[in-house]
Structure formats: structure tokens, C-alpha cells
Amino acid sequence: MKYVRTPDSRFEDLQDYAFEPHYVSVPDHEGGVLRMHYLDEGPTDGEVILCLHGQPTWSFLYRHMVSIFVAAGYRVIAPDFVGFGRSDKPLERNDYTYANHVSWLASLVEQAELRDITLVCQDWGGLIGLRYATQDPDRFARIVAANTGLPDANDVDDGDVNSVSERMRAHYNSLPVYEEPQAMALGMMSDPQGMGFLHWVKFCADAPVLRVSDVVRFSSGGNLSEEDAMAYDAPFPSNESMAGARQFPSLVPLIPDNPAIPANRQAWKVLENWVKPFLTAFSDSDPVTAGAHVRFQESVPGAKNQDHVTIEGAGHFLQEQAPVALSEAVIEFIKDNPLPR
Fold it and tell me: 260 in the Ramachandran plot: left (φ > 0), alpha (ψ -120 to 50) or beta?
């Protein structure tokens, strides 16, 4: 598998990100290996908090939360998914598949020998992390789902799969090519057919320029310093390094004939019998995942009787806008649900 590796110089002197890099080699499923980066901060014997980012960000998103968790005595593992951050970046969009991402995360967790994990997952961190947690549940003690979901087209009857899939693809093909997040968002909000997310898929796939800092700034109410913007863009010095960021939205299994649907439905079967503690911590101003917390709360037994949290004043990237509130919610959740002795 051909890939590029972002030069280390791009990560020097990033504000609030003075963490030592750690790496594992994961199989590329073509006979080679890829280097996958992760942060490993805090005491080696501390309870593990596994923080998973989404698209198009990287572990920099958790920089403030890492410090809070470490100060509270926890060990924090924050990977960069393949294609992001300091991890290797395959050049072809087809190299990025949902199944590959799950297997790459599994390889990292197994090599790091992580146990009794508290999973904190947002955006694609949930799609990947929840799939992996349901495949290897013995490694996980608790789950915190924050602005994420696990799509499985559960609202589409089997007999309608083909017709709904054809209609959604036709709608996607009819969408314009957006040049900036603002235009994409306007198209999403004004979509008369209710297929707003397809606008995001189209934008990431075909926009002439996809800049991570623009997405984070737009999704954070415009509040992003120039130093932080440079840090979000640091892993992506060229368009060829953006294949993973462009591909992720296309992998979301919203169209009912998506090949990931059966695996996600199997994951939901496990979640519907998941009795370990499960918390939802969604923000109050995220149009992407609004309402997704309801299914988790109603379907996951471990979510019953938990003090679910709404993070106020935050959009999609709540780690950026409300790191203290989210961190405190996670820590309180851990303390309220101690490991069995």
C-alpha cells in the first residue's frame, strides 16, 4: 500500500500539544505495514481512557482533555487513525475502508495490551470504537458516546433497500460541488429531501480544497485561534495527504445497501445486551448528530439510570469548545461506576 508520512517538523512547537509520540505497526492488509501514532500520557498503572477522534481532526482535538485526565490520575491513550495526525496516510481513497479502520484500532489496542478501557468516542471515533468494543467487549469497562452514532439503516424495510439506495445515490449525484463549508451547510439545511448529510459527503469528496481548520472553525462558531488552526492543518501538507479525510464521510453507512450495514447491525445486537456502564454526552448545538443519543439511551441496558449529560454551548467538536465540561462528565461517570473488585 503506497502512503505518505507527514514530516516530524510539521508537529514541532504545536500549542498545548507537547506530548511524546508513540507508534505501532499495523497490517495494511496488502502484505505490508503502516505506522500508527498514539499518545500515551499519565501513570502506566492508571485506569485507561481511550480517546477516539473523528473526521477530519486528529488527536490534537483532545489536547486539553488529556491534561485534565492525567491530572486526575488516569492513563490516556489517544490514537491518530490511519490517514490522520502523525499516522501514515495511504494515497488511494479506496485504501480506506470501515473494516480496515476497525482492524487498525484493534491492532493498536492489542499491541498496547489495554484492558478495563473507558472509551470516549466522538464522530467517526464512535463508528469505529463502538464496532471494535462490541467485537472485543472484555477489554472495555465503560463507554462514553459523544456526538456520534452507529448507523445501520434500521428505519428502512428490507423490501425497500434497493429503491431507497437508488434514490439516495441519485440525489447525491445531483448535488453541486461546494467550495467552502458555509455553502455546504446552507445546502444541507435547505435540502428538501432530508438527505442533508450527503452534502457533507459531496463536499469532502469533491471540494477543490479541504482544509481541516476551516471545518473546525466553522463547526465551532468561528472561535479558533490561528495557532490552533495551524495545528489542525499540520498533518496535511498536501492534497495527497488528504485521502483519508476526504474518504471518511463516504464510508458512513447511511445508504441501506452499504456493505458495512450487516456488521453495524451485529454491533447493535451486542449493544442491546450491553450491561456495562454507558454514558451519552452530546452537545446542545450539533446539527450532525442531534437526537442520536436517544437510541443509545433507550436501547443499551448499561445506559439505564446513568446521569446522561448535555454539554451546553458546544457544536460538533465539543472537545474543542467544552473540554472541561466533557472531561468532568467523563471523570464523574468513571467514579460513579467503579471497576468491580
Answer: alpha
* 113-144 per-position pLDDT tens digit: 999 999 999 999 999 999 999 999 999 999 99
User: How many domains is the chain partitioned into structurally?
Assistant: 2
What residues make up the domain containing 275? 3-154+260-336
Instruction: Give Cα separations from 150 to 104, 129, 275 (angstroms).
Output: 18, 10, 18
- Active-site option among 95, 101, 286, 293: 286
Q: Which of 123, 152, 214, 228 is catalytic?
A: 123
DSSP string, 8-45: GGGGTT-TT-----EEEEEE-SSS-EEEEEEEEES-TT
123 catalytic per annotation: yes
| Phi, psi (rounded to 5 degrees) for 145 | -100, 120
Helix 98-112 and helix 124-135, axial crossing angle in degrees, nearest 10? 60
Q: Which parts of the chain are beta strand (E)?
A: 3-4, 22-27, 33-41, 48-52, 75-79, 89-90, 117-122, 140-146, 278-283, 309-311
DSSP state of 209: -
pLDDT at residue number 189:
85
Active site (annotated) includes residue 316: yes
94 and 231 housed in the same domain:
no
33-52 per-position pLDDT tens digit: 999 999 999 999 999 999 99
- 3-state SS class at 245: helix
Specify whether 124 is located in the same domain as 79.
yes
What is the dihedral sign for C-alpha 67, 69, 74, 78?
A: negative
Q: Is residue 23 part of a domain?
A: yes
Distance CA 284, CA 64 (A): 20
Same domain (yes/no): 73, 194: no
CATH of the domain at 264: 3.40.50.1820
Compute CA 203 distance to the chain's CA centroid, rounded to the nearest angstrom.
18
User: Whole-structure pTM over 0.90, yes or no?
Assistant: yes
Of the candidates 37, 199, 293, 316, the residue annotated as catalytic is 316
199 has catalytic annotation: no
C-alpha span between 237 and 224 (Å, rounded): 19
- Regarding whether 163 and 98 lie in a shared domain, the answer is no
